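> forwarded from #structure-qc
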């Protein structure tokens, strides 16, 4: 959720939102339903599922492997060095807000407080470790007892808090200017970079070609309504991001702050913002709690395909698979952590470890995995069979005949362009 906020902040506000919605509708939903439908059909992880549909060694099994490896690489650099670490920061700021330890600071004081905290190795390491343990404990309990139960509590709470914060933000003097900036579509801002960023955000936010939709589909009953479930999942994910923008940008304009501050919006800028609001500690605590929930749900989603693949391929019990996966993620991801500091000058193809992992997963693995899924549907599964299989149990929203040009032409061509552009 928060990533799309930052993308819109540096890509022209409403221009990015407009492009993102188009991509979600025309590419995100069809690909998501393909992956979920295959998961439901096989009732297995993406690797074992694709093997059952074809055979061991078939090139189509690469879709399963690319999905698992994409999730693993994303966890080693993005979730570990970004999500889990920043989740630790968020957790720490949640307690700072509740305790009132940030109250009364100047704008410079908030910036210095952030620098002091992130420079405190022990505090950051402790908060990060706490988040990793929380993720492990929830994931170890399985989908129904752990992840599903946690999301049933987190997601409704997140939306309630978002709506309360959005109402509060819109009541600030001058907030309407921020709302206009956020919602106004400046077509001159829409270029190739915006389209690529929007597609990348769609892949990351929804979890396309990372094995997550395949795994969750494998837990579904044979008569479950996949098109409606896919629409609800993508719709609520997008809605949460849109409402979060309504929380942040009107408030930023109301206080005369910069909308393109990036991730520092979460800490320096937002802490400053809440200090100008009545009951600021309360609203600040709510804000950091909901962002923590959003990050936690994403981390759990990316971890699940790795854990399930481990239980199937290596015959591990779930708890062992979770902790072994997290240990491997930390060990292999250690260079990406060091790339933010002492190892910043060590390069692979002109990129440090963090940037190389970002390039490998975002520019190659996920688009290539999605392309393989698209081509499998086009040449092996065929549109008619995909439509028939996916529409089992569907009621109001279905895979319609007019999706055929999207599946046969638009999506494969778009993914090829994206893959080539991303690589070169």
């Amino acid at each position: 959720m928060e990533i799309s906020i930052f993308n819109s902040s540096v890509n022209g506000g409403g221009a990015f939102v407009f492009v993102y919605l188009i991509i979600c509708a025309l590419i995100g939903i069809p690909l998501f339903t393909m992956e979920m439908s295959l998961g439901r059909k096989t009732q297995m992880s993406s690797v074992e599922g694709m093997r059952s549909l074809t055979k061991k060694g078939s090139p189509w099994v690469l879709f399963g492997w690319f999905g698992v490896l994409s999730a693993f690489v994303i966890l080693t650099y993005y979730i570990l060095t970004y999500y889990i670490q920043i989740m630790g920061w968020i957790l720490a700021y949640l307690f700072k807000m509740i305790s009132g330890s940030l109250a009364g600071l100047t704008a410079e004081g908030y910036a210095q407080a952030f620098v002091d905290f992130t420079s405190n190795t022990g505090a950051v390491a402790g908060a990060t470790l706490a988040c990793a343990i929380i993720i492990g404990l929830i994931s170890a309990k399985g989908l129904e007892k752990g992840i599903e139960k946690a999301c049933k509590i987190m997601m409704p709470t997140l939306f309630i808090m978002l709506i309360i914060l959005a109402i509060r933000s819109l009541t600030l003097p001058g907030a309407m200017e921020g709302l206009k900036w956020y919602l106004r579509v400046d077509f001159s801002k829409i270029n190739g970079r915006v389209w690529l960023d929007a597609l990348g955000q769609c892949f990351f936010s929804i979890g396309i070609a990372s094995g997550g939709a395949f795994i969750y589909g494998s837990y579904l009953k044979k008569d479950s309504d996949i098109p409606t479930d896919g629409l609800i999942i993508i719709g609520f994910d997008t809605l949460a991001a849109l409402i979060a923008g309504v929380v942040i940008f009107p408030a930023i304009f109301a206080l005369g702050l910069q909308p393109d501050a990036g991730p520092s919006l979460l800490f320096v800028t937002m802490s400053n913002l809440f200090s100008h609001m009545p009951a600021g500690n309360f609203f600040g605590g709510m804000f950091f709690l909901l962002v923590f929930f959003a990050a936690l749900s994403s981390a759990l989603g990316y971890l699940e395909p790795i854990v399930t693949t481990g239980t199937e391929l290596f015959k591990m019990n779930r708890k062992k698979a979770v902790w072994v996966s997290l240990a491997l993620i930390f060990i292999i991801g250690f260079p990406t952590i060091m790339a933010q500091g002492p190892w910043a000058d060590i390069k692979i193809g002109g990129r440090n470890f963090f940037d190389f992992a970002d390039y490998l997963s975002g520019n190659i693995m996920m688009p290539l995995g999605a392309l393989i899924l698209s081509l499998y549907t086009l040449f092996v599964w065929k549109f008619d069979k995909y439509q028939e299989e996916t529409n089992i149990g569907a009621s109001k929203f279905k895979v319609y005949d007019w999706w055929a040009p999207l599946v046969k032409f638009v999506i494969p061509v778009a993914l090829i362009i994206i893959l080539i552009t991303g690589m070169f």
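QC bot note: The first helix runs from residue 2 to 10. The chain has a mean pLDDT of 81.
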